[in-house]
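Task: sequence design from structure.
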């Protein structure tokens, strides 16, 4: 399968058509943005790490019954995926308070929740991805009630699988963002990526941040954190 016309360029990835109308090639960039594109930069080697990490995690999820868009890793930065139409919701699962949750509710970061939470943002850059509830999402026809139920079930399932996986790597999964898509058959699969760009990952012992918050918050050591989290993942699956 080879790259044909570029379909789309996002903040961190490019998407290409292939000879097969049901398959696309995703190419991961080193570009990094935060705050809806307001902060711009680059993280050397990020594209390679995010591509490889996302593929390894999606394969682990597939083995555990979660359908994903993953088909085949083609190169360091490129992956063959099933074509989906993206459900325009960012699905955020949280285990521990951090980021916008801590800010919105005026609590410190690091409070361990009794049970995981889920929230949705409407994927719309012009509006700044506003928080939305499932009733609003259904009213706006972003997803059907059945799709919302499926997305919730998969998201909490993914949380348990990822939490257990990262624990084995000495990493605490604080929160993460998922995106889902519809195949041409209409069935829902996990799409986009699972990477340090889209998860908060803290060292279980020291609490050190091993994710994109190092970039968002100018903490330094961004590249090293991405390398370190990938090293731990590799070490674990050896
Ligand atoms: P938040 O606390 O800023 O709402 O972020 C929650 C999680 O979602 C965190 O793991 C980072 C991830 N995230 C994205 O993947 N993309 C985004 O645009 C934002 C704002 C957060």
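Answer:
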């Amino acid at each position: 399968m080879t790259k044909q016309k570029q379909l789309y360029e996002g903040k961190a990835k490019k998407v290409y058509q292939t000879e097969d109308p049901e398959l696309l090639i995703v190419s991961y960039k080193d570009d990094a943005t935060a705050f809806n594109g307001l902060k711009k930069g680059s993280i050397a080697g990020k594209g390679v790490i995010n591509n490889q990490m996302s593929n390894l995690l999606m394969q682990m999820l597939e083995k555990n019954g979660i359908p994903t868009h993953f088909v085949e890793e083609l190169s360091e930065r490129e992956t063959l995926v099933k074509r989906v139409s993206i459900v325009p919701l960012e699905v955020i699962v949280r285990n521990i308070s951090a980021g916008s949750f801590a800010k919105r509710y005026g609590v410190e970061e690091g409070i361990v929740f009794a049970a995981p939470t889920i929230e949705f943002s409407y994927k719309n850059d012009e509006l700044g991805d506003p928080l939305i509830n499932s009733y609003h999402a259904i009213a706006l026809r972003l997803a059907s009630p059945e799709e919302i139920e499926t997305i919730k079930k998969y998201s909490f399932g993914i949380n348990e699988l990822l939490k257990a996986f990262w624990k084995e790597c000495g990493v605490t999964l604080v929160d993460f963002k998922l995106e889902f898509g519809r195949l041409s058959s209409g069935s829902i699969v996990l799409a986009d990526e699972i990477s340090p760009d889209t998860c908060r990952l803290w060292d279980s012992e020291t609490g050190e941040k091993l994710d994109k918050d190092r970039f968002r918050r100018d903490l330094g050591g961004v590249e090293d954190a991405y390398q370190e989290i990938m090293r731990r993942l590799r070490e674990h699956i050896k």
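The CA atoms of residues 91 and 224 lie 28 Å apart.
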